[in-house]
Amino acid sequence: MSSPKKILIADDEPDILEIIQFNLAAEGFEVITAKNGDEAIELAKKHLPDLIILDVMMPGKTGIETCNILRTHPALKETLIIFLSALSDEGTEIRGLESGADDYLTKPIRPKILISKVIALFRRLKKENESIVKHGDLIINKESYLINYKGDDIILARKEFELLSLLASKPGKVFLRNEILNQVWGTEVIVGDRTIDVHIRKIRQKLNLDCITTVKGVGYKFEL
Amino acid sequence: MSSPKKILIADDEPDILEIIQFNLAAEGFEVITAKNGDEAIELAKKHLPDLIILDVMMPGKTGIETCNILRTHPALKETLIIFLSALSDEGTEIRGLESGADDYLTKPIRPKILISKVIALFRRLKKENESIVKHGDLIINKESYLINYKGDDIILARKEFELLSLLASKPGKVFLRNEILNQVWGTEVIVGDRTIDVHIRKIRQKLNLDCITTVKGVGYKFEL
DNA sequence: AGAATGCCTTAACAATTTGATAATACAGTA
DNA sequence: TACTGTATTATCAAATTGTTAAGGCATTCT
Question: Could you tell me where the beta strands, DSSP code E, fall in chain B?
């Protein structure tokens, strides 16, 4: 489906760690585990996970302290964080959320609920690194350089494919011509004015589908 | 976003409705209430809230059914949704999250937890959608170069869009003609006196909405 | 190697949209 | 009324994009 999302879990109880790891891995996530806050911080810096699940009660640093430290790192400022806690203590839960977490779950862990919540959180995030993008009947596979529309494979040339991939990576967003040139052609290469148009035309022709909209004087955008 | 966040609550129990309304209003949110799913759908289309809180168990449409209908409306596709339920039924909770909700809370409602979660959701959303400006029923999306009024997309030409964006960036502020020229046309270009008027007229015509006020001898301002 | 194929770019021209202006009508005010 | 500033409309020039064809280049095939 997509390049697997990385999830870091920190909990001092090996059992819980294993249960969560097993369930998330079964859903296709890439899971990294840490036994305490310090290890979590170290691993987070190293792997830059998409989501961090922190137990609140851990020896050494608590989950909330760990969270605060993680948030000081530029690359981890936006990372999703979920707290786990045995306590159903309202004050702790509120402090957890206030410290910049995105959710708070109380033990006992119900794996299916956890997974649903994880998926709900990811749904809100950008899908930039996805190697397969689907929009309605259109499937773009960046790994095999294939487009499939309603079951039929469509072959695009490299530049055409890269151009479509770029536009489809953020449906609705208008890409300026400069933006497109930098992303697809690079900053070094200089090509003529009509080059983009011609490629756009070929894509529209091959797909035979009205999914690229011209915004005159601005650029192009992808939308179904 | 500038204006206070709008939250729509749907629950058939007046007590719960009142408790939630009171607590959210105390935090500065603008709260709208509905007694059932149908009313929620109607009010949602009318007010385009930023967050919708749905009770799962309601007479008539359930919260999940309501959610699914809401999601079919273009302007409500991305709206945050939280479910409330007395049931601590795992299956229902999972189905709720799968139907596109962002969180699921079980009753009894703990107001402070609810508020924390609401704030956490808005905090996460803000990082993504900074290019979208809302004023009442009017949504200006700088990323897709689209104006949306009461669910309908309106296409403005570049200059028209930039002009409206500028005025709407500070509702109530009167922009002098010079100010507008510098911001939209730049200091290099020199255009005639009537140019701004003509563009203003086109915007008014396309939006068919009285949101730009002429301040004679001074300039223009945006207000609903 | 030589031929064939397909990709990328460019040039030239057509089609379209946008932006600016001028001319005129209108509104408010002293 | 005369004056000042804005609204409206039509028109034309300019800017932008669409389309097509052709040539260079690289890759693949025989």
Answer: 6-10, 30-34, 51-55, 80-85, 103-106, 132-135, 138-141, 146-149, 152-154, 174-176, 212-215, 219-222
- A100 at B interface, C-beta within 8 A: yes
Nucleotides of C under 7 A from a protein CB: 6-13, 17-23, 28
B128 interface with A at CB cutoff 8 Å: yes
Query: Which pLDDT belongs to residue B158?
Result: 94
- Verify whether the Cβ–Cβ distance B90 to A112 is below 8 Å: yes
Q: Provide the pLDDT confidence category of residue A161 given band limits of 50, 70 and 90.
A: very high
In angstroms, the CA of A174 and the C1' of C19 are apart by 21
> CB atoms < 10 A from the CB of B210, how many?
9
Provide the Cα torsion B177, B181, B187, B190; round to 10°. Answer: -90
Compute CA A177 distance to the chain's CA centroid, rounded to the nearest angstrom. 25
Cα gap A67→A101, rounded to integer Å: 8
d(CA A10, CA B111): 29
Cβ within 8 Å, pair A116-B98:
yes
Q: Which nucleotide is nearest to A193 (CA to C1')?
A: C10
DSSP per-residue codes, B154-177: E---HHHHHHHHHHHHSTTPEEEH
Residues 6 or more apart from A159 whose CB is under 8 A from it?
Answer: A184, A199
CA A56 vs. chain centroid, Å, equals 25
Option in B102, B120, B128 nearest A101 (CB): B120
Q: Say whether pTM exceeds 0.90.
A: no
Task: Read off the pLDDT band of A1 (50, 70, 90).
Answer: very low
Q: Give the domains, in start order, of chain B with CATH numbers.
A: 6-129 (3.40.50.2300), 159-222 (1.10.10.10)
B157 — pLDDT class (breaks 50, 70, 90) = very high
The whole-angstrom separation of Cα B15 and Cα B60 is: 19
Nearest CA in chain A to B120: A102
**Is the Cβ pair B116, A93 closer than 8 Å?**
yes
Cβ pair B112:A90 closer than 8 A:
yes
Which of B44, B108, B43, B89 has its CA nearest to residue B71?
Answer: B44
